Amino acid sequence: MHVFPQLRKLEEKYADELAVIGVHSPKFPNERYADNVLLAAQRYELKHPVINDVEMQVWRQYGCRAWPTLMFVDPAGKVIGKHEGEIPYGPFDELFAEMIAEFDAKGMMDRRSLNLQPDALGDDALAFPGKVLADGPGNRLFIADTNHNRIVVSDLDGAVQDVIGGGAEAFADGGYAAAAFNHPQGMELIGDALYVADTENHAIRRVNLAGRTVDTIAGTGEQGMDRRAVGPGQQVALSSPWDLAHHEGTLYIAMAGIHQLWRLSLADGIVQPHAGTGGESIDNGPLASATLAQPSGITVGVDRAGESILYFADSETSSIRSAGINPATGRVATLVGVDLFAFGDRDGVEHHVRLQHPIGIEWHEGELFFADTYNHKIKRLLPLTRAVQTLLGAGAAGRHDGASKQATFSEPSGLSFARFDDGRTPLMYIADTNNHAIRVADLQAEKVWTLELSGL
Predict the structure, then answer these.
(1) How far apart are CA 6 and CA 437, in angstroms?
(2) Are 184 and 130 within 8 A, CB to CB?
(3) Around 42, how many Cα atoms within 13 Å sit in the side-chain half-sphere?
(4) Do residues 389 and 379 make contact, with C-beta atoms less than 8 angstroms apart?
(5) What digits encode the pLDDT tens for the residues 260-288?
(6) If one looks up domain 4-105 in CATH, what number appears?
(7) Chain Cα centroid distance, residue 89
């Protein structure tokens, strides 16, 4: 999915010359269903046709070994090239320009329109919201309205107070209406500053809530592939930052695109890798030598010794893992999860647990809560015993309110607790991504309801 932004730009630039056919060869069981494939295509705003290769037949015929694999086919239908893994836009662009010039010279280009029209989205108030951040004392809820390219601010009862971003898919600083995002995801609130992981702009944005402005503190707007880059934030290219967490003046970034955690000093603006080599796997050990796999959620909690530590949802390994904060002595460990290809839906303890592509995670009152996204559930993990228990969700995709384990979700991707100073029970707010909705859960009363947004 991290190659889609580059592909979209190429499809727009070479609209008359380039025909793209997506082949979806599923890894996870949740990805096998046609309805889910359609939702994914809409979420990533794909304009080209997509084959659901349920039995992996096309995968085998083309000798694929990795996600993604790009096959290049000439106008005569012959395979002329293959690339495994992601590729930056620049080399991609140069390659297509050269191929088009070559086939034009041979008179082989056919520029007739294919007249393909993707299925349109509905007119929901939200579009695939990816993350949510609740501020109990401030009675505010920040919603990453991802496919509308904006941040929606409401009170905790759903009355909309503000909209940050003009809605265009672009990269621009300025006032709320002039600022532009590109599929924002995770957020972190520090005082009057809201920090946003602007995923497809490959940037970290800062919203001045008092001054009603947005600026960029890290990222160049282009996707970076340098897994060892260090420097001033605005000069270093990032890669699909997906979520944020803050601890003592440092912003930690789940850098999903290159399978790492990064850190950004808010004092001097220096950004650099924190954990992971960039290799995609599940190796534990010292921060610099461990491997991660598309970390998509991150939170700060405490370990067995009472020391602060990072916990993150490592999506492609279907695991929940931890990373120390001290760059010199910190280590990566796995709480639950086994391997890139070990997944399912099983509660239990340690290596007996099976998850399916978890994305969101939150620390609350000594426990970890996470969105087991492809299982359509919210689960709890006790760090000391490494025991996992389903709290919310029947396990099937749907949109049904009610009792905790009878309620249904559709690929929930973010969650956040609203904590109150007056003794009220904390409420969990959930970004129910494929339902284009925010759900609310009272864990004490064991019930779930849908937040009704007004004024949007």
Answers:
(1) 28
(2) yes
(3) 19
(4) yes
(5) 999 999 999 999 999 999 999 999 999 99
(6) 3.40.30.10
(7) 20
Name the DSSP class of 39: H
Hey, CA dihedral for 375, 361, 132, 186, is it positive or negative?
negative
Rg (the chain; Cα; Å): 22
Exposed/middle/buried for residue 128 (C-beta within 10 Å: 0-12, 13-18, 19+): buried
Mean pLDDT of the chain: 94
**Domain locations in the chain as residue ranges:** 4-105, 132-450
Q: How far is the CA of 317 from the CAs of 81, 224, 288, 336, 431, in angstroms?
A: 29, 23, 19, 10, 22
Token digits of residue 188: 């972190």
d(Cα 260, Cα 323) in Å, to the nearest integer? 11
How far, CA to CA in Å, does 429 sit from each of 130, 144, 422? 12, 12, 19
**pLDDT at 41 exceeding the cut of 80:** yes
Q: pLDDT by residue (tens digit) across 128-187?
A: 999 999 999 999 999 999 999 999 999 999 999 999 999 999 999 999 999 999 999 999
SS3 for 378-432, per residue? EEEEECCCCEEEEEECCCCECCECEECCCCEECCEEEEEEECCCCCCCCEEEEEE
- Decide: helix, strand or coil at residue 208: strand
Q: Which residue has the higher pLDDT, 4 or 321?
A: 321
187 three-state secondary structure: strand
CA of residue 153 relative to chain centroid, distance: 20
Q: How would you list the strands of the sheet with 140-145, edge to edge?
A: 132-135, 140-145, 150-154, 160-164
Structure tokens at 393: 């969700």
Question: CATH code for 132-450?
Answer: 2.120.10.30
Residue 441 token pair: 């859960």
Six token digits for residue 364: 């609350």
pTM: 0.90
| Surface-to-core class of residue 230, CB atoms within 10 Å of its CB (0-12 exposed, 13-18 middle, 19+ buried) | exposed
> How far is 368 from 363, CA to CA, in rounded Å?
5
H-helix segments, 157-203: none
DSSP-assigned beta bridge partners for residue 250: 247, 265
How many CB atoms neighbour CB 117 within 10 A? 7
pLDDT at 1: 66
Contact 199, 5 (CB under 8 A): no
